[in-house]
Write a structure and sequence with these properties.
Distance between the termini: 45 Å
Helix content: under 10%
Shape: globular
Radius of gyration: 15 Å
Number of strands: 6
Strand order of the largest sheet: 1-2-3-4-5-6
Largest sheet: 6 strands, parallel
């Protein structure tokens, strides 16, 4: 099937899961909303999930998530709107997400990804522009890899 079963995450033992690596699941098109029932999840690795179209809208409600890796998810077209509110997120790897057209806007100035250390947007050639929070993260010292067509001027 192109997605994980809806029953994913119902098992009590999975509630203690701290890392989920489904990298290379070429057939995976979407993740169940129940993914957010994993309250201790710190790392979500979905590299090379070529058919993955989106993340659950409830992804931002995962309080412990510090690492999201979506490298080479070629069909990924959008990210959840509230993603920029994730206060613990340190790494967001979107390299090679060739269908991604935009990043979610920040809701409030200064409160967007306060702990982000690394953002990779290389080979995201469909991105139309970058929201203000990308520059804010850079000014705070985060390493940001921009796509070639949106490289920072003067740097």
């Amino acid at each position: 099937p192109p997605e994980l079963p809806d029953t994913f995450g119902r098992c009590g033992k999975l509630r203690r899961l701290s890392s989920l690596d489904l990298s290379g699941s070429y057939w995976l098109e979407r993740l169940p909303e129940r993914l957010t029932s994993l309250p201790l999840l710190e790392a979500l690795k979905l590299n090379n999930c070529l058919k993955l179209e989106c993340l659950p809208e409830s992804t931002p409600s995962m309080p412990e998530l510090v690492d999201i890796q979506l490298n080479n998810c070629q069909a990924l077209a959008e990210l959840p709107k509230g993603l920029a509110k994730m206060t613990k997120l340190k790494l967001l790897d979107l390299e090679g997400c060739g269908q991604l057209r935009s990043l979610p806007d920040g809701v409030r100035t200064g409160g967007v990804f306060p702990n982000l250390e690394f953002l990779d947007l290389q080979r995201c050639e469909q991105l139309v522009g970058l929201p203000d929070w990308v520059g804010q993260c850079e000014r705070r010292g985060a390493a940001v890899q921009r796509p070639g067509h949106l490289a920072a001027s003067g740097s």
